[in-house]
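Course assignment 3, question 2. Fill in each field.
Student: A.L.
Task: Predict the tertiary structure for the chain below.
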Amino acid sequence: MKFISRLIRRIITVAIGFVAIWLIATQIFERLDQRLSLFIALMVTYLLSAYVVLPRIVRLTSLILRKGYIPRFTQSGDGLYVDPVNLILLGTQADLESAFRQIGWNKADSPTLESAWKMITAFVQNKAYSTAPFSSLFLFSRRQDLGFQQAVNNSPRRRHHVRFWATNANEIIDPLNVKFWLQKQEIDYKKIFTWVGAGSEDIGFGFARLTYQLSHKIDHNIDKERRYILTALKKANCIDEISYYQSGTFKVGKYISDGRIAVAKLRRK
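Answer field:
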């Protein structure tokens, strides 16, 4: 029965893929090619496909397949599962910002048209932009609350970075509980927070799989980035002892990890 169910889902997915190709080739490109030069038609077709058509098709397909569904993965705006959660820090926002300031990391600018253009310019000219904005990823039905980064060799093309989402949970009883990750969190900013983080290293630029949007490429070994962040925080005496939730080794998409979530309490400053 499971085999038949999987087969039906895959047939539907393939059919959606063919419809997407037909839509892009005949309904978008051919119509644009009749009115615009070939180069302009191709560019507009790419932009419409990568940022409008394909993200919606990916979202629809993911609802059908539910393949590799792991609740503690963050999601892109297209609904794809992307950076895994790999660390949790306990403390106030002031504690968190102070800790990353001490280890020489910079708080990311808010994503605006101005900061996005500054990021593009810095990347093309390979000029430093230490507070470059992050793209929006989603957890608890909202984008990240804070982000911190450290440039590699002072370049905008490579950086260590981590996104954090605040929750008011006093403790994480079961970090792999589906409800914990999917429910929308109502935040009381007067309380001590649990900061749920997804840390990874940008190693360049490339095209996102499935949608082909231009985005940062991530080092597949996210455990290395988790270790890098925790080592720096521990060395600067910013956190107490580290414990781990063990969920088992996984490989989903481009990521390979031992599946552990590191947990540590921030020291008050």
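Instructor remarks: DSSP finds six helices and 14 strands in the chain. Residues 2-65 form one domain.
Grade: pending
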